[in-house]
Amino acid sequence: MKEYRVAHIDTQTTWRGGERQALELIKGLNAKGIRNILVCKSGSDISRRAGRENIDIRHLPLRGEWDVISMYRLRSILLSESIDIIHAHTSHGHMIGLMAKTGLPSCHLVVSRRVDFHVYNLFSRTFKYGAGVDKILAVSDAIKRVLVEDGIPESRVVTVRSGFVPHEFISRGQSVNLREKLGISSETTVIATVAALAPHKALHVLLKAASIVCKTRKDVVFLIAGDGELRSVLEKNINSLLLGESVILVGFINDIGSVYESADIFCLSSREEGLCTSILDAMYFRLPIVSTNAGGIPELVKNRVNGLIVPVDNHQLLAERLLELVDDPLLRKEMGERGRNLVEQNNMEQTVDKTFLVYKSLIENS
To answer: Which of 9, 105, 200, 290 is the most exposed place for a label (fewest CB within 10 A)?
Structure first.
């Protein structure tokens, strides 16, 4: 069989779910004998982590989607390495890859799409997501439906769900006891959120719900793990809602398993969400989920099975569902066990295999 050669582009500097998925995909494809190159920014989190995995890395400036210098340097890589597939894992990488492959008919462009908002811009619909893109890998059926509604041919969109990464949590012996570190008693119910502090996560809705919950129950603490542009805004919201003793912003934590281990319930208040691998992580730790119905979340969280679903932006109902689980430890345990059983249906091996089949189809049919 011909050796497949793939250049993966990730333009982010920080470590988020998309970067985690990209790195695990490359590792899985390497195990299949595919030649992979990671194109990323020097000093980025994904570069540091990929370096520890002995992945072939090429650094480019990647200063934006119209970075002509990066485009020409990527094109040089495509030619010198005889690349068959460009796999863009970010929006800016998508555009740079699209420009770089112009005039190279044997090089195919695959784009991962992890967000569920519409492609309203006419330029994006006709060019960025036009015929120059061979396949779009939507991480949920919800994203695929949005793209098809926006006029992108269904034949070019494939659902390839993000996969759960079990090895990150296998060795827990050295994990920090976060409850002990934060002075949270064993009798306190901990509701955890793991999310970037970004607008689409709608954490202000979570804080409004937390205000209701904490007025009803004094033995509840909310932990919000993650960092981002809205941290200072959230700190002000916490103070204005008098939640200083009940909501803890723990920031970015490398040992993210310690957050899940400390929790009794996992909550997500997102307004937009492609799929959310944090939910998969929470299910692995047998946590019941209370979440909105944004994007692909209902594909993971089955209402009254492994969690409770509420409409987007409804803080009152979000609070009611959280209180329902706070008051019912048995229901929490039952939902958590069901969630753990569902994790295996979303493993990383399936993500790797489905992505490989997309590559294979494009190369063999070209």
So the answer is: 105
